[in-house]
Amino acid sequence: MAGDDVAWYQRLLEVRPELIDEVPCWTVIQPLTKPVTVAEVVRRLGGDQAEIEYRSGWDADAATSVVHLNQLGPAVVMAEVMDAEGIREEVLRWLSDGAVVHSSWWGSANGRSFLCYAVFGRLLTQLQHLDDDRPGGEQPEALDEDRAALRRLTDDPDLDYPAQLALMERRTGIRLDAAWLDQPHPTVVLRKPIPDDPRPPGSFAATDPDLAAMLLMAGDPTYRAALRWVLDLLADDWELRSEPLVNAVLGTLTRDWPASKDLGQEAHAMDSRLSAEVNASPGMSPERWRRFHRMRAGQAFTATVVNPNDRPKPLDTLWYAQQALQERWPAIRAELWRRARHQRGTLDFQTSAVDGPAGS
Predict the structure, then answer these.
(1) Is 351 exposed, middle or buried (0-12, 13-18, 19+ CB in 10 A)?
(2) How is residue 313 annotated by DSSP?
(3) Is-above-0.85 flag for pTM?
């Protein structure tokens, strides 16, 4: 049965359903060795304190980087409408200087979420959801004790977001309430947000930068052949060869990267079908996990489809693949690394009139 705090957030979201779609990011900044004020938070976010306004309510259609703030005793609560500065690592480092920061982001459109915990300028824990078994951060296990009692509630998808907000309350002692958003409160537009750190392209490169680098250095033909090999395994393991997108991706990878509007539509249709199968199965049952891993296998194919106008290397194909392949992944990763390493060429320095030093 849900705790009182979870039940409170469940009722809040039933009464204020717009909080799910319009205010997805909540951040609580609490002082440790330095005072925390609204003006100080605005300064740390790169905003102009002279531009702080007092507004009632919020506008879901407003420009991004609009931050709503509330001084609550020594702490500051921050709410963002359709934005998520509060879960960015760069922002968390600045906000947690001499302070402790907890931040929650909820993506209602795709069911993704983040929970972050930072102290003294360091991101200690980052969860992608309450059931995340591979947290990020310097101390990935730091939230384990507090989330243990809440993880079982995620069997019920209606409690996912309330449980996530309840974890914020249990960690901070502050109950998140939307009432102050309806009253005059400090608001600022971040016109020069804190810039991003250099970072890997996507989730797979962040978790396995060595293999990602090896594949990218090996060149397109080797990289595409390696992905096709992995996708062939997934198609057989998870009986996906009847899917139009699967055959289109496998056929195209022999000569190019798959990219077209039609493939985007096929990807969306397959994602919807596989997600519906997961949602239709009993929570935490073996059947649900089987369908979940099949969905991940399908998402490996959809991640391979690139935008015709912007062709990034689709490394996240392998992020989904490793989840679907599970215990087989270490052996498959070793083979991918071997193929990529074998194809790396050697560049020789050559002295010539063209590329030699000037005047040689």
Answers:
(1) exposed
(2) -
(3) no
